[in-house]
Design brief:
By secondary structure, the chain is α+β, with helices and mostly antiparallel strands. 15% of the residues lie in helices and 34% in strands. Bound molecules: zinc ion (ZN).
Length: 204
């Protein structure tokens, strides 16, 4: 399986990174070895001094698809979860400055946290009104709503499937809202999807 991550899908987050608003979705990949499951601890990597959390809605692809049409796009995922796209921001800044790929900053082990429960797509009454938020040590640091995405789920699937075949089990991290920031050893991270806690782990 592959993990596809969308960059800059919320206007307020693009602004906080001083990035321009994209005209089409920007995406990058993480390998399956980057997954961190079952609320296991995140071990702070020794190659970075500035690892940031990015809480995101995550789609689970349930059918093989290529050049998917927008009107059918939502039938290609069967469940929604939340995840954290951990980013070594200090290394990413160097990559951007030097025009290099981002993998060292984005694709390292345990950099793709996935919540402990996939919620079936059918149980969401409105895909444009999904709330999610992240608490660190009991304080809310990030809040998002799917209605504020620049490109909705269907548009993301259409775009990605032009370039690469989507397969069962692939995950799409759909981008982060504003409020990203650093984590520290000892922090407890709790992530909520429509009020239900499905992420709860510590940084060690
Ligand atoms: Zn992200």
């Amino acid at each position: 399986m592959k993990i596809i991550c969308i960059g800059r899908n919320y206007i307020d987050h693009a602004k906080e990174l001083n990035s321009s608003i994209p005209e089409e979705p920007v995406f990058f990949l993480k390998p399956d070895s980057s997954l961190l499951i079952r609320n296991r601890p995140f071990y702070y990597p020794d190659f970075s001094q500035d690892v940031h959390y990015e809480l995101e809605l995550v789609l689970r692809i349930s059918r093989v698809g290529k050049n998917i049409k927008e009107e059918y796009a939502n039938s290609y995922f069967d469940a929604i979860n939340i995840g954290i796209d951990f980013t070594a921001r200090d290394i990413q800044r160097k990559c951007i400055k030097n025009g290099l790929p981002w993998e060292v900053a984005k694709a390292f082990d345990r950099s793709a946290v996935i919540g402990d429960e996939f919620i079936p797509r059918e149980s969401f009454s409105n895909l444009d009104k999904i709330n999610f938020h992240l608490d660190i040590n009991g304080k809310t640091v990030q809040e998002g709503n799917s209605g504020n995405m620049i490109f909705n789920f269907a548009k993301l699937i259409v775009h990605i499937s032009q370039f690469m075949t989507l397969k069962m089990g692939d995950l799409i991290y759909t981008g982060t809202p504003a409020g990203v920031g650093p984590v520290n050893i000892g922090d407890r991270l709790e992530g909520y999807l429509n009020g239900e806690k499905i992420i709860d782990f510590k940084v060690k």
